[in-house]
Amino acid sequence: MSTAASYLSAVSQADARARKLSDTDSTTSTPALSLSSSVTSSSTETVLDDAPFENLDGLSYPKVPPTSEQVFKTVHSEFGHCANESFRYTARYQPGGQFARPEQEPPHYVLLSTYLSYLLLICVGHLRDFIGKRMRPSSYKHLMKQDGYMALNSDFDSFYTRRLMLRIDDCFFQPVTGVPGRTIVLLDRSSPDYNITYYPTGTRTRALNISSYNYLGFAQATGGCADAVEESVRRYGVAACGTRLEGGSLDLHLQAEALVARFIGTEDALISSMGFATNSTIIPALVSKGSLVISDELNHASIRFGVRLSGANVRMFKHNNMESLEQLLREVISQGQPKTHRPWKKILVIVEGLYSMEGNLCNLPAVLELKKKYKFYLFVDEAHSIGALGPHGRGVCDYFGINPRSVDILMGTFTKSFGAAGGYIAGNKNIIDRLRTSGHTGAYAEAMTPPVLTQVIASTASIMGISIQDKNSSLQSQAVAYPGPVPSSALPPWMPLAPTMIDGTDGAMRLRRLAFNARYLNRALRLLGFLTYGNDDSPVVPLLLFNPGKMAVFARLMRTRATPIVVVIVAYPATPLVTSRVRFCLSASHTKEDIDTVLTACDEIGDLLDLKQGTCGRWPLEEIMARAVEIVQMKEMP
């Protein structure tokens, strides 16, 4: 093809043919990844990777357009099919059950060896710096004074980055390409100088993706949501992306905000083009000097940044400790503002629905009891819980069976469960109207683009279901906490609607598959003897590694298996120094066989690295895999 336009046209036509073929697909279950996982070994695993290329005007384009068969065969790598209804579960709080299981403490020798490892790292690292500055000054120019100028970097401040993170940099910053679905494609690379520089090898590896926040599996290049996004690009065009109409909004902005409000169960909602900025720009509009923010000690950095910008006083309470929160409330209410001791203008308590580093839920029922008693305002960050928890996917309120209107401000993002970008603020209409004018998001941030808005609308409607008959229903006509299917009149009239989106079966299937996968992996790891944090229904599963040397080994052993597995390694400063961990991020796109693959790898590597320090009864791996459904359905762990 001689031009980019002709190439894109060929891709579009092949994609359309592939989607027609996918309607006749009879596959009921996706098998586990084959042992031959390298993309370069198969020409059918990706759409464009293996087509012959030629160079035109400095750009590379395939000589031959991809066939519909190539596009069709990528579907299973994005979302694993599983028709077994036994591998389903509904995540909800069981009244009378244990809200949070006590965290197990590791043996003393594990903590001692961890501290000794960091001590050895610090001593050897400073010794190398001392000798290196004198023997190889050219390698330490950025840490030394040069020609009367101060050092560009502080050797003390950058010590942790240079001496620890640099050594395991390949575990933190692995380049990838393609859709981060059930599988993901790694761009292979090598480093001859201990991760200072990298060189691409030119090969790619497809790996099982257990590291993305793709909770409901909407990160797909095919399907009902992808068709809707493609149609929005045709309708609005590239030039309309970011354009502000009707006083700052496109028609899609208004439809998306109304739909989000209905989905959350609140009066109104405000959307933002960036998740981090949703917190950091909205909190200063809620509180100011003379106000008090009481924050959980493990709240996200965006919350901390927003509180600093607001100028309000801030106090922190112990993570998820209601006794600590109540004691702090009594103190600040009785003492008032510093120096003057006047009453606070406003007290705002901020918690998260699901803490992404710990994998546990906020004790929302207990917080609401304190709210009734002490009359403060409540802000709940549901970045990770919205769409991932509850029978209806409405987040932590849905999980506990609480009316969302009992919470003053509900915040969430579209970057996790919805496969889009941006965030939202939902609550009382008067509050949202005020935030539209006083929040920095509306005045300074760019508008969300039409394709992203369409993805938000399509994925949300897919979870809720669509009512074709109810043409004239208003989004706010029902006062119940979670209204039923959204009327088709509330959606863009040009949006294509897949049958599974209309009847809601697609969204319900994704919610129940995610709940099964999360509960299965959480409990199976503990039965194998690992130390884990978090709630059983959390899609984020932290497995504790402790020792800094084990972080790199664990990640590399997982990535170099016959069936490669990509994981997230988390260490200081994101976590306390001695509790480094690996986080498994589960998705509805994973099958039961995929979870078994992860468990098999963890079982083997756990024995090798001495990670099985839990006190829970040890079960054989084969028994766990055979009794998966029973393990998930158990009310309490044995």
TrEMBL record:
A GO term for molecular function: serine C-palmitoyltransferase activity
Any one biological process term the GO annotation gives: sphingosine biosynthetic process
Name of this chain's protein: serine C-palmitoyltransferase
Keyword Transmembrane in record: yes
SUPFAM superfamilies: PLP-dependent transferases
Cofactor: pyridoxal 5'-phosphate
Entry-linked Gene3D superfamilies: Aspartate Aminotransferase, domain 1, Type I PLP-dependent aspartate aminotransferase-like (Major domain)
Every Aminotransferase class I/classII large domain range: 208-463, 507-600
Subcellular location per the Swiss-Prot or TrEMBL entry: Endoplasmic reticulum; Membrane
Listed PROSITE patterns: AA_TRANSFER_CLASS_2
Class of the enzyme per the UniProt entry, highest EC level: transferase
Record field: catalytic activity: L-serine + hexadecanoyl-CoA + H(+) = 3-oxosphinganine + CO2 + CoA
Species the sequence originates in: Cristinia sonorae
UniProt keyword terms in alphabetical order: Acyltransferase, Endoplasmic reticulum, Lipid metabolism, Membrane, Pyridoxal phosphate, Sphingolipid metabolism, Transferase, Transmembrane, Transmembrane helix
Region (Disordered): 16-37
Gene Ontology CC annotation, any one: endoplasmic reticulum
Main localisation: endoplasmic reticulum
